[in-house]
Structures are given as structure tokens and as C-alpha cells.
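User: Predict the complex.
Assistant: Input components as received:
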Amino acid sequence: DAKTTQPPSMDCAEGRAANLPCNHSTISGNEYVYWYRQIHSQGPQYIIHGLKNNETNEMASLIITEDRKSSTLILPHATLRDTAVYYCIVRPHNYGQNFVFGPGTRLSVLP
Amino acid sequence: EPEVTQTPSHQVTQMGQEVILRCVPISNHLYFYWYRQILGQKVEFLVSFYNNEISEKSEIFDDQFSVERPDGSNFTLKIRSTKLEDSAMYFCASSDSGGYNEQFFGPGTRLTVL
């Protein structure tokens, strides 16, 4: 089972920042936090991952709390194309470890 | 940008028939995976493959399923005798040599079993 808890759905106005929370209170020391998204029935798309430091790339920022029990994915300027299901996944740092997907958060970006 | 490709995009088959789903992982990747997603449900792990053998498999991956890397580029999933409940999207994924990092997913094959 997934080790994360996410709200089932969220809305965000186009052009505004989308802040997607994730709770992973039982995360272990060797587990990373990954974020993927899935647009319609397309394959999951990698967004970002981190261990304990905040991370930023061209798609998003990942803020991880100091105790690592929760995190927030930030899409700085949401567009309609960001409407998708967003998955927060914790995954051990092992060779070839598979991902365990939960139900995710359905983000709707509204015009 | 390199990407994982899958063929066919949609496969329709009769119950009891064999199907082979094909994937071309990213060229320098060495870890390969199959996942499936039944309509409206979560993405589920099926199997991982490294160095020409299965690394890990889930309970879903029973004797009806097999995987193969027949050449240097393709990675296939075979379902020997399809059931109605095998109807799903099947996603192939690959990751780089370390296997630690992100997996890149293909666009999926929609399998419909009639």
C-alpha cells in the first residue's frame, strides 16, 4: 500500500501557484519523496524528487519539512495543461525499486 | 529528448488469446518495468527486469504473464491466455543504470479483452 496521504482533489486558478500537499509521516531515512503526474490516461510523467532538501527544476518546486513527514509540490504558475492527477510516492533508495502509486490528487486548473 | 515508446497503442483481443505488448525503453537504460492501470483504478506494479532476468514481481504477475528482452532494444510483456480482467492500460517504464532514480514511462497500451 502507498505510504502517503494526499487530498483527493484540488482546484487552482490559471496563472496562480498550485500547492499540492502530501503526508508521509512514516517515511524512513533511506526513502526519497517522488512526484509524478498523469494526464488523462497517459503514462505517468516524472516531475521531481528529493530526500530532505528543497528541490527545484523547470517544472516545479518540492518543499520537504524538516522532520520529513510531509511535503508540498509547488507549480508556480499553473496552466490548463497542468490539469492532471498528481502522485506523491515515497520510495527506498534501492536498485530497481518499483513505485507504489496511491490514488493521488486530481488537480483541476480553472480558467 | 529520449522517450519510452510502446506498441500497439490499442490492442483488442478475444478471451483466451495470447497477446504480446511491446516496449522500446530509453537506449542507455538497464532497468525495465511493467505496470498496469485498470480503468478508474491505481497504477499497479507488475514486474521489474534487469540483466535479462526478473528482479521483482507482484502478486498480479502470475504464470500467465512473462517478460522478455528478445534483442538489444525491445522489452515485451506476454499474456498467455487473456481474461476479461486483464483489460487495462499497460505501461512500460525504464530507468538508468543505477536504478535509483526516476523511471520514465511510456504512453501505454490499452488492452481490451472481449
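Residues 47 and 66 of chain B are 9 Å apart (CA to CA).
Let me know if you want any component modeled separately.
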